[in-house]
Amino acid sequence: MKSISNIGLSNVQAVYSGPEGALWQLIMGEQIHIGGFTSSMDLAEKADIGSGMKGVDFCCCNGAGMRFLVRFRDVAQMHGVDATEKVVEQGRSLCEQEGLSDKIKFILADVCDSGLEDANANFIWGEDSWCYVVDKEKLISEAARIVKPGGVIAFTDWIEGNAVLTDAEAERFLTFMKFPSIEDIQGYKDLLEMNGCEVVAAENTGRFAPYVDLYLNMLNMQLTYDALKIVGFDSELMQSMAAEMTFMQELAHAGKIAQGLFIARKKD
Question: How far apart are CA 68 and CA 194, in angstroms?
Fold first, then answer.
């Protein structure tokens, strides 16, 4: 696992309360994760998430993942946990507009200390967001506490790829993304197994590089004005962010960062 010491929850809250979070939503839509609907459906199918289940979405952001699960997997009840007030308010508003407030509830809290009941969920869900959590060991422990025996922990996340990041590359990437750390496949497998789970799937989805290409093409070919508006028409800031995204693109094509998919079942 690569990590830096100067990034914490307050930095992540600032991102998703400000223009940087708006930029990510501009290029990725409500589903602010690599692969959008396709990625969500892939994870749900592989984890066998379906009708009548109760789930918890850790780092749920605006709740797009929960709305997907209720609409397209017939999940009965979702609780979303996120520590950023702005996105929680957005999520509640969107669920109300879409008539889903009876099935989807939001909790403004640290996912490492959610306050939810022990062994009360059929599954724990996460999409490309656990990279923002400082204490990943405590995060996985909290997920394992909340899910029922026989239940599933299913998530995707940004991970270090098979090619190793240099210390300088990791520091630059983590600083730009406001990630305190980035796990690899083996690291997440170890944490899941340490917390009484059997790992069913742990794999690189192969989506990262082509989707970063897509996002940069959208910014450069279509959404330039929209992006500039979000950052107050600050061209220097926009150029700086574009340079960091290009660096991220290079890392992805070099196999140094990737999107990982993980499914684990809590042992009875």
Answer: 30
pTM confidence score: 0.96
CATH code of the domain covering residue 189 = 3.40.50.150
Span 191-216, mean pLDDT?
98
Q: What is the DSSP string of 50-111?
A: -TT-EEEEET-TTSHHHHHHHHHS--SEEEEEES-HHHHHHHHHHHHHTT-TTTEEEEES-G
Buried b (16+ CB within 10 A) or exposed e, 62-99: bbbbbbbbbeebebebbbbbbbbeebbebbbebbeeee
Helix axes 235-253 and 167-177, enclosed angle (nearest 10): 130
- DSSP β-ladder status, 147-160 and 181-182: unpaired
Predicted local distance difference test score (pLDDT) of residue 200: 98
Q: Could you report the per-residue pLDDT of 180-194, keeping only the tens digit for each?
A: 999 999 999 999 999
Q: What is the spatial distance between Cα 114 and Cα 72, in angstroms, rounded to a whole number?
A: 26
Rounded distance, CA 23 to CA 231, Å?
A: 8
Q: For residue range 208-265, what is the model confidence (pLDDT) as tens digits?
A: 999 999 999 999 999 999 999 999 999 999 999 999 999 999 999 999 999 999 999 9
Nearest Cα to 81, choosing from 17, 146, 177?
A: 146
User: How many Å apart are CA 31 and CA 41, to the nearest integer?
Assistant: 12
Give the structural domain span for 172: 2-266
Count of domains observed in the chain: 1
